[in-house]
Amino acid sequence: MPEPTEPTESELPVEPELPDNWGRWGDDDELGTLNLVTDAVRASAAAEVRTGRWASLAQPIAPTR
Q1: Angle CA(21)–CA(22)–CA(25) in degrees, nearest 5?
Q2: What is the pLDDT of residues 14-65, one digit of tens each?
Q3: How far apart are CA 24 and CA 33, in angstroms?
Q4: What global pTM score does this model have?
Q5: If we measure between CA atoms, which residue out of 38, 43, 39, 21 comes closest to residue 30?
Q6: d(CA 16, CA 22)
Q7: Residue 28 φ/ψ, nearest 5 degrees
Q8: CA 14, 16, 21 angle in degrees (round to 5)?
Q9: Does 11 or 22 have the greater pLDDT score?
Q10: 10-to-13, 14, 18, 37 alpha-carbon distances in Å
Q11: Are the CB atoms for 50 and 61 separated by under 8 Å?
Q12: Residue with more model confidence, 63 or 11
């Protein structure tokens, strides 16, 4: 049995009703929506901190094989 390969971009299904951000920040962009996390956004988020407690948002990942 041959190894599966990743589909090319043209082979992926197109969902025209879904939002599309490809090219939103230019052809060479590698950050995507991380472009929205500006210095002002980080400062605003830091201002929300009330205690030093932290909570992990990590989810366990089980092997599929």
Answers
A1: 80
A2: 777 777 777 888 889 888 888 899 999 999 999 999 999 999 998 888 777 6
A3: 9
A4: 0.47
A5: 21
A6: 13
A7: -95, 5
A8: 90
A9: 11
A10: 8, 9, 17, 30
A11: no
A12: 11
How far apart, in whole angstroms, are the C-alpha atoms of residue 63 and residue 65? 6
Q: What Å distances lie between residue 50 and 47, 53, 60, CA to CA?
A: 8, 9, 28
pLDDT of residue 62: 78
Tokens representing 39? 């210095």
pLDDT computed for residue 12 by the predictor: 83
Beta carbons within 8 Å of 21's beta carbon, 6+ residues apart: 32, 33
